[in-house]
Amino acid sequence: MKIIKLDNTTDKKKLFEIIGVTNEGAKILEDKAEAHLIYLKDIKNPAAIILKQEALSVGADLAVHRDVILCKNEVSDAVLIATTKQLKLLSKKCLAQPFGLRQFANDLKEFLYDIPKEIKLMGVINANDDSFFSGSRFKGNSALSRIEKFISEGASIIDIGGVSSRPGSEAVSEEEELSRIKPIVDAISEAKLYEKAEFSLDSYSPLCCEYALSRGFSIINDITALENDEVAKVVSKYGATVVLMHKKGTPKDMQKSPSYENVLDEVDEFFQSRIQKAKSFGIEKIVLDVGIGFGKTLEHNLSLIKHHRHFLHFGYPLLVGASRKSVIDMISPSSVEDRLSGTLAIHLRAVQNGASILRVHDVKEHMQALRVSQKIDEVIL
Question: What is the reported pTM?
Fold first, then answer.
């Protein structure tokens, strides 16, 4: 007998097919083969003791503070270690328990999700002269040519922006923004390019959003996450998709010593409130963006990428846009023009952790990287 240690990302369903497991058996085994680490904050001591016992009873475990058994503190943190199968069993058992465990059981169901398989590339076109990467700036016919090139290279979404949101940038009037995007929006509309790809407007201007959506655009990429009710009304009017991005502060001041008690918690709470707001306006098509580089330190950005799959519990597609950003320079000093390899590293990790839309400046290179990565994932033995 020989032993082969397999990578945990191996497609379990295909693996079980290879060795001849029945379809029914494969479904049962898949849940047993997926392991989870779930961090629990501020769990009450009695709840931790009960949850530890219930976890052990189904073959899982709960890592708790050494003083939990002594009840020295009212609450503490814990880490639940379990397979998908064990989480399902544990959820049922906790429904009958006190100390907040019934709510825990209901909430736990949100975290039993699959990593998306289909990945979309969103190509970036900037109609302003001060975007941080000069290679993304286009006007008139050159913009149209670049859009067609992006589509031919595999982009299924094109994101048009007329105002820079780089750290330190200044806002402009709605009229100025409209004057920048209007020629490109009109050209896209006249050429009916919206029949070949989806078009997104990177804007929080009601005037500009109305103009783009009335001419074939179907997505509003709002870095303020519907801060302006008028934008929400326009998105709802056209039945468009909205990208809700998290940021802290404004582009002008967001990178001046950003701080969080817990970045994952704060971004999660932000998404909860903005999703609620979107729904209150009748908006159902939502994409979430953790906002890499928008009011975050290097550690905040890396934490959001590493634990990105956490945000899948909301049930919406996740977008990541780290293309050529300074987070790469903080790790490996480099110019904006020399950050493609770092971009690919972050974006491939983001895809592994649940992202299904990548906002990029380099479509061809991302398409190649994704194809190679996906091909590796398809290999079983």
Answer: 0.93
Euclidean distance between CA atoms 278 and 59, whole angstroms: 41
What is the rounded distance in angstroms from the CA atom of residue 280 to the CA atom of residue 45? Answer: 37
DSSP secondary structure, 298-338, as one string: HHHHHHHHHTGGGGGGG-S-EEE--TT-HHHHHHS---GGG
Q: Could you give the residue numbers annotated as active site? A: 325, 359
- The DSSP element (H or E) to which 89 belongs, if any, is helix 84-94
Q: Strands 75-83 and 241-245: what pairing? A: unpaired
Both 95 and 165 in a single domain? no
* Cα(146)–Cα(371) distance, integer angstroms: 22
Beta-bridge partner residues of 158: 123, 199
Structural domain total, the chain: 2
Return the structure tokens found at 213.
């959506």
Q: What is the pLDDT of residues 119-129, one digit of tens each?
A: 999 999 998 76
